[in-house]
Amino acid sequence: MKKTILLFFILLSTTSAFSQGMLNLFGKTEDFFALMSEEKYTEAYVYFDASFQAKVPAAKLQEMWTSISEKLGKLQTVNILSSKSQGDLFVLSVEGKFANDGQNFTIAYNKTEKIVGLFLQPKSPSMDYIKPSYADTTLYSEKEIYVTTEKHKLVGILTTPKKAVNYPLVVLVHGSGPSDMDETVGPNKPFKDLAAGLAVKGIASIRYVKRTIVYPNEFIGTFTVKEEVLDDALAAIALARTIPGVNKKQLYLMGHSLGGMLAPRIASFAPDLNGVLLLAAPARKLTDLIVEQNNYIYALTKDTTAAGKQVMTDAQVEFAKSKLTTLGTTIKSDSLILGLPASYWVDLNNYNQVEMAKKLKQRMFIAQGGNDFQVSMADFDLWKAAFGQRKNVTLKSYLDLNHLLSTQTEKGSREQYLKPGNVSSLLIDDITAWINAK
Predict the structure, then answer these.
(1) pTM of the predicted protein model
(2) Among the three residues 120, 153, 184, which one is the final residue of a domain in this structure?
(3) Is residue 109 domain-shared with residue 141, that is, in the same domain?
(4) Exposed, middle or buried by CB within 10 Å (0-12, 13-18, 19+), for 399?
(5) Tens of pLDDT along 64-113?
């Protein structure tokens, strides 16, 4: 089973406020399901509380998992969808992705971090990706490509317009955590939409599977955004320079979420880029976004219990710790803080995306949605304050767009991502006009 990297706060993640204790339960949950997947039932059974064991023999646990495996195939990944305190218990909602289908679980822990309940959640009606109306497949073609570095090979898709020559090309850079080439979240595929929408308008694109989903074991221990994002983005840009039919003077970098935050840093290593696009890009430190996201979600849960308040209090300690710029000298580089190694925080804490962007000579397009609960208009206001007077920078806000760049009637929560939506055609039109303006 591929181990999921638990970047809970980063921009496409779970929906609750967490203490370090909750993070421990995340790890325990992954380890438990790994043992079940490997059919190590005796070892997995140790994770259960004695009261549970008295009611459910180990043979029943094995019988349940065998039945699931025969029907759904081998477990591929697990993902924590949500967590909450419920009296003296901590309850996690877990998404299991198997070879043939998915199955969600509810798992409850007591204060000693032992499992006291494991339940299969009823399968909700599946909702599939819906191709946007602007995706006219007769106008573009797609070809499998590979983004390669010295030790890594990532499959991707080159999307090119059929009726254009000497066309622009955009390299798409993901948000945080493991992600496929479409940046899939539930039935939503923002990068697939963007690629189709741009190709219909005569603009090619490269999108690729993120390294964190292909080489997950490399993200245990010390790492930074260099390994997570930068190296592969630069390799994709290098690939773009070699593609026949592409106008080499019209190469663009489009970063979404964390990818947008890092886009100025990436562009600083690729001065031949004609332009840089930042979609739903944080202008603040990630920790500031963590606090804002957690406060927002906590308010939605309306959890006023003592346990709920304690979770928030404990989380503040981790937030404060992650802000330190001296982590490398005071804490071991592989020590986990908010689920990430100290090395990661040191690197990001020393990076100022707004100041880096000011040094770029390339044109910039900065867009933000008003219904985005993960990156807010507060970030857009900071970008606007820094670049509102720059003639080579275009800033666009869309009051109805969420973090996945689709039209919504309200901010909502992560539950919104379980329903299909498509990247706004208006946003694609504006991006196209900006690129064609040169």
Answers:
(1) 0.75
(2) 120
(3) no
(4) exposed
(5) 999 999 989 999 888 777 666 666 788 888 888 898 888 889 898 888 88
142 shares its domain with 115 = no
| Residue 266 to residue 335: CA distance in whole angstroms | 26
- Cβ neighbourhood burial of 74 (10 Å; 0-12, 13-18, 19+): exposed
Burial (0-12, 13-18, 19+ Cβ within 10 Å), 355: exposed
Backbone angles phi, psi at 371, to 5 degrees: -100, 25
Distance CA(381)–CA(400), nearest Å, equals 17
Cβ atoms within 10 Å of 92's Cβ, excluding its own? 21
Would you state the structure tokens that stand for residue 303, as one six-digit string? 């959890």
In this structure, are 170 and 227 located in the same domain?
yes
Nearest residue to 203 (alpha-carbon basis) of 284, 277, 257: 277
258-267 exposure pattern, b = at least 16 Cβ within 10 A, e = fewer: bbbbbbbbbb
Q: Do both 170 and 91 map to the same domain?
A: no
Asked if 29 and 94 touch (Cβ cutoff 8 Å), the reply is: yes
Q: Is the same domain home to 37 and 144?
A: no
Q: How many domains does the chain have?
A: 2
Q: What is the pLDDT of residues 122-149, one digit of tens each?
A: 765 557 899 999 999 999 999 999 999 9
Task: Quote the domain boundaries for residue 161.
Answer: 137-285+337-437
Q: DSSP string spanning 16-63?
A: S---HHHHHHHHHHHHHHHHHHTT-HHHHHTTB-HHHHHHS-HHHHHH
Cα(248)–Cα(245) distance, integer angstroms: 9
| CB 147, CB 232: distance < 8 Å | yes
Q: Provide the token pair at 41.
A: 């039932």
